[in-house]
Amino acid sequence: MQRSILLGLLANTPSVVLNPAWSSEARSLFEAAQRLGMTVADQTAHQVSFCGVGRSIQVPGTALESIGSAFNLRTMAAVAALARGDTILEGNASMLARPVRDYLGFITELGGDVEDLSTSRNLRIRVRGSRRLGGTAHIDTRHSSQVLTSLLLVAPLAEDPVRINCSQGRGVGQGYVDLTVAMMRERGAWVESTESGFVVRPGMYRSGVHEIASDFTALSYLAGTVATAESGHVTIRDYIPSQLGPEREFLHVLRQLGIRTTHDPATHTLLIERVEPTSRHVEIDARNIPTVVPTLAAMAPFVEPRVTVHHAAHVNNHKCRRVDMMLEQLRHMGCSIAPTYTADGEVDGFGTPSGRQEPVGGVTAESHGDHRIFMSLATAALGARLSTAINGAEHLHASFPDYFTVLERVGADFDAARTPDGVLSPAR
Ligand SMILES: O=C(O)C1=C[C@@H](OP(=O)(O)O)[C@@H](O)[C@H](O)C1
Ligand SMILES: C=C(OP(=O)(O)O)C(=O)O
């Protein structure tokens, strides 16, 4: 959804998004795109049409706010590099701890400028745009794929070709970069991969019609209910598979763990059910599936095989230190799950010592203001013996505003007392 909005803004002909997915982060980007010049032609629950401005990005009079969304901040910073003037972008405190402000050097390398005006409480940067962007930019892809996606999206609108050199081949989150490139090409961009990165030729984006696929990370929490329940299956209606490699990878991992997903294209359903796992010890490479690492941590104590997750260090660069926080909170709930380390002593991932456990729960768990940690902890809480309270339900809007409704529909027993703290207290 966020890529469709950005590509719509960067085209100067109308675009249509079918089946729009309105999380608060998508909505916030949509509003920012309008302040950068995009106009909305028509909007219903089923589709939205809008017209972008191509290279003629407007300079917004006041700061563009991205709150806790690094994707929004990074991509808007790249777009602001096309404007003739200064754009201020702001983010909350969680963004100060993430690889965000020190990783926007590509804007300067291509002819714009970036100034860090952050305080100890907020991220604040000023981007000075230039319509004469072009040249070679270096991107560090070890910690996040989003910087590369941000640069790729604006690169066709530079005056001169853009050559992108990546620090470590293509780094983490490769499937997300593949989606960026696929959507750019669908809209007429010329982008080729090279040994060290990409080359993008100047051009224009043409209009496009894009249907938003189902969100496989949201789906992971439903797979989690199947993993933690004693028995039962879940059927997803109106399931639209995405073009994302990470989705395919995640469904394969689920199958290894003993959770089979069956897509029926005729009825547009996805059946999620428990089957025999494929082995007694499942080893998972997390480089390409960052968003479901917290869900996998929550599921690991409940599945039959022993689970080891490798190469998950980058997942600590998100809204909170997601690997560290999940392990801390799962252990607090009585799960046996431990971090694994690289040779340099950095957290690499985690592992369970054996198959299915019976964690006691019965505590209050903390989601650290992170929607994905909330839903992952709720997944584990549904399998625990005693009710667990979880703080932070007020952040669900970031990706899954209907989470409680869906949870109710799959038969989960919980008390979503919407207290100011947003406590969710699943029983079974
Ligand atoms: O491009 C994208 O849409 C995303 C890229 C990934 O970011 P990182 O590479 O920073 O993990 C992923 O975690 C995020 O949820 C969405
Ligand atoms: C993609 C996410 O957000 P951000 O844009 O902040 O990385 C997320 O919360 O998983």
Please tell me about this protein's structure.
By secondary structure, this protein is α+β, with helices and mostly antiparallel strands. It has 2 domains: 55-199, Enolpyruvate transferase domain (UDP-n-acetylglucosamine1-carboxyvinyl-transferase, Chain); 216-426, Alpha-beta prism (UDP-n-acetylglucosamine1-carboxyvinyl-transferase, Chain), CATH 3.65.10. It has helices at 2-10, 24-35, 70-80, 93-96, 105-109, 146-154, 174-186, 216-228, 245-257, 293-299, 322-332, 371-383, 403-409, and strands at 14-18, 39-43, 47-51, 64-65, 86-91, 113-116, 123-128, 135-139, 162-166, 191-193, 197-200, 209-211, 234-236, 259-264, 269-274, 281-285, 306-310, 338-341, 347-351, 364-366, 389-391, 414-415, 425-426. The strands form 7 sheets. It has a 4-stranded mixed beta sheet with strand order 2-3-1-12, covered by helices on one side. β18 (338-341) and β19 (347-351) form a beta hairpin. It starts with a helix and ends with a strand. The mean pLDDT is 95. It binds shikimate-3-phosphate and phosphoenolpyruvate. Its EC number is 2.5.1.19. InterPro entries: Enolpyruvate_Tfrase_dom, Enolpyruvate_Tfrase_sf, EPSP_synthase, RNA3'P_cycl/enolpyr_Trfase_a/b. This is 3-phosphoshikimate 1-carboxyvinyltransferase.
Primary descriptors:
single chain; 428 residues; alpha+beta; UDP-n-acetylglucosamine1-carboxyvinyl-transferase, Chain; 2 domains; four-stranded mixed β-sheet; 13 helices; globular; binds shikimate-3-phosphate; binds phosphoenolpyruvate; EC 2.5.1.19; 3-phosphoshikimate 1-carboxyvinyltransferase; 3-phosphoshikimate 1-carboxyvinyltransferase activity
